[in-house]
Amino acid sequence: MTKIARRGLGRLGLAAGAAATLGGGAARAQTPTTLKVIWMGWPDNQVNPLMEWFEKRNPSIKLAVEKIPFNQIFQTIEVRLQARNADPDIFICDSPLTASYGARGHLMDLTPHLDASRFAKSALAASTYDGKLASAPFGSSMQVMFYNKALFKEAGVAPPPADVAQRWTWEKTVEAARKLTDAAKGQWGYAFEQSERPYQLLPLGQSLGGVALSPDGFKATGFIDSPAFVEAYTWMQRLYTDWKVSPQGQFDPNIPVEMFGNGKIAMLVAGTFSVATLQQRFPNLDFGVAPIPYFEKGKPVTPTGAWHFAINPRTRNQAQTLTFLNDFMTEELHSLWFKLRPYPPVLKSIWDSEKATFDTDMWRIVRHELDNTALPRPATPGFREYEDLVRVALRDIQTGADVKTALSGAAQRIDREMQKYR
Amino acid sequence: MVSFRVPLWIPAAFLAPALLGLLVFRLGPILIALVGGFTGTTLRGDTVYVGLRNYADLAEDPTFWSSIRVTLLFNLIVNPFQICCAMGLALLVLRPTRGVALFRAAYLLPMTVSIALTSVIWSILLEPSVGPVNGLLRALGLPPQPFFRSENQSLATLILVCTWKGAGYWMIFLLAGLLAIPRELHEAAAIDGAGSWQRFLRITLPLMRRPLAFVLVADTAINFLLFAPVYVITHGGPAGSTALLMFEAYQAAFAFLNHGRSLAISTVILAIIGVIAVLELRLFRAAHERAE
User: ipTM beyond 0.85?
Assistant: First the structure.
């Protein structure tokens, strides 16, 4: 696999040039096709094995993979797609962006190439745009609350139970977090993994009955700034400014996970995939898992949504991209992927083949949540704009901005940006 | 006297690469922005003519006006501040004392770090919870500061970071200007009994008008186009307190998929820079003429 596309392409270009000069047509025919792939910048050991597995199966195809960090990935993809050329051939796609890319003609129709019966219902719904399968489901998601057993013991606080029927409320969570916070030691009681992302934070307002966007997907005013969200985010703000139980301004999702691993955070709501990171990086950490809390007067709501990947309809290597699609949809690859980074699988067969793996507290919670409490992000072609503006408002709220003003400001700007999709 | 004619193609050939660069990287994009400000993009990527709609939308948009306010305030402070710092540094390293080359190099060093890397470094240093600067403040018994995370401190912090990066660079230009002032003038004034402050006001400053005019205009243009620290560190926040126009132009194009709006904002920035540069040059030229 070529890690950095430009360098890889340069080398490839040189090789192709030399081949053309020396050997003419015959040599050119042997040059492998290179697919340009934009992928999430997960740790190398969670990405490279997949790409190497593919290249081994397909010696005539090379992958030039650009791994882009989470905080830059959507902007990077946007810049590249807006050029409307054949670059990249394949790109990773956050499932709620399927409609956004689809509306603008950035997705190849995958309906003829995917067997819909193999996928979980929610994954299919997320990959469908305009009645067609427009992105390939690659992993679902769910979050749970991780807690540090030693810190709980030290503070004399009983840890949250793993049983979903005895799920903690947010009120109880804050009460515990205050006991677990020790400013002198730089130890925090509680943290969100993605503390500025609608993905993780919309469920707070939804737990109080809020609806994040109008049902037609074009209006945010009266929805994201409704009393339920104002109340939920006022509570969230107090975590940082009033109770001071959460570290402020940690917007890179890797940092809270590192802090949890280092015993600096007692409770962390994070994705299931963090288990792999925690077990590999912090083998001595003794942690437990509990379901995501809910507001006492509300109901449990959890985030879901997924990583898909998509094919650029302007690719000049259609046959090779379809080979990629087929291989990346095999059970073998999904099984490998699940072991590397444990997202809830989108292939139904993996839930059966990995039965023993799923017999743990965490996966029991995940299955319950996916069946009962999970709510995907709003379906709208304007999700890119929606997410960005809500994200800025959530940042501002975390650092002390007036909640109602921040949400209403974001809602008005979202409404303005949505006009182009009407 | 020996005279020889240089064929026209020789200077033309020497100038061509620079002129080509100017055309491709400066005039071309300016032309694209001017024309593009009157266009919109359909969802499928087709460009359509929309007349003045992008500008009308901007005029009605409170976010845009807030960004204009932030950008003007930022420039009103950062440009004079950077130039004062640069002038101060230039005066400090002017005299050929032992080790002065080391100081000149040290002050110039931030210039060699890319602006994106500068942003990353300072975002780590000034991180409120775990950053080393607050660690130092705590160790000194001082209260930790929110820096970029506070609506009240973010713009000032941005100004300080930009000055850290820019002052040494502008110092070089001002130092060249200072070194070009004939030493005899200072000596004569000293013999006539002028103190160092008087010599600075009556000799140094008047003779520095041309380098200062260049530095002021160039610095203004660069600071109006500032983007990287806002993108890397603050994303325009908190509460729009660092939402400079360039960031708004970026957001319009790549977050909100509205190229016409983005190009209209770019044109507005260009117009503002143009007007301010003319004013600055006039200010300095008028003073210069008066001096003559």
Answer: no
